Amino acid sequence: MPTLEELRKKCKAVGLSAKGNKTQLAKRLTEAGGPCPPSSVESEEDPMCDAVLATKGNIGCEGEMTIDAKVTLGLALDNEELEVQVVRGTVYVGNRRGLDFAEVREYFRIIDAEITSLKQSKAALEQRSTALQEQYKQVRERFLGTFRRDILKNATKRDYDIIKAGNVTAHGGDVAVDALLYEGVHGRHDSRTFIELYGMTPSDAQKIQHKETIQILNTHAGVRADTQKNGSEEYYRRFQVFIERFEQSDHDMNYLEAVPPTDLTRAYWDLLNCERYEDSTIV
Description:
Strand order of the largest sheet: 1-3-2
Number of helices: 11
InterPro entries: SAP_dom, SAP_dom_sf
Organism: Tuber magnatum
Pfam families: SAP
Oligomer: single chain
Low-confidence stretches: 34-41
Protein name: SAP domain-containing protein
Structural class: mainly alpha
Number of strands: 3
Helix content: 55-70%
Keywords: Coiled coil
Distance between the termini: 81 Å
Radius of gyration: 38 Å
């Protein structure tokens, strides 16, 4: 319920007498505006509404704009119909242009809330992604350690500790992630292990973004680390030729589009079409 002072101000605003108690003033306002049935937008929690009036004014200096705004707003109040509208649970009363601005205001509130929610979701996903990355790095560490233990026969205590620390083991290459394991002071230092698997150093491997080349390197690592089957000598020979041609081309990433085909292009297709294992077909 409005206060006595608020009712007096409303009476004065519409040219009515501001004398009397709250009941008299409320009755005077109701009679001046016609019958006023109970509103469906009343709220017991917040009995107040936002009054919004908007119009266009001329652009000029600050003083002129202020005076013009007072005039045009007064004309809008005198000549335009006022409406009541609920926007996202908030009650507004005003002219049509003012209510349009109220809708925009509420729209931005919704957008701000959604942005905040998305930021929170993004932070949670990044936190989970970081945890998963660390877990996957441990899986890749076990792949390298197992290769040293089972194939190279030169596993270190660190390799054995890593192998024992988990029960998830990778069975194929992942040159991009494995190369990252050699970064920093606490990274791996057995570059020869990496070269045995991928044919190049970790630092060179990090420069490669070409999908087909990455797949070739990962496939070789999987064959090289396989403890159940032996890679064919011809496959290993062709892989070595591919690596040599790749290095000679200064790591050209466009060799599959080369016209005419280059030595690197031919080396790629020769390797791709080669039997990987002894006494087997291409897999």
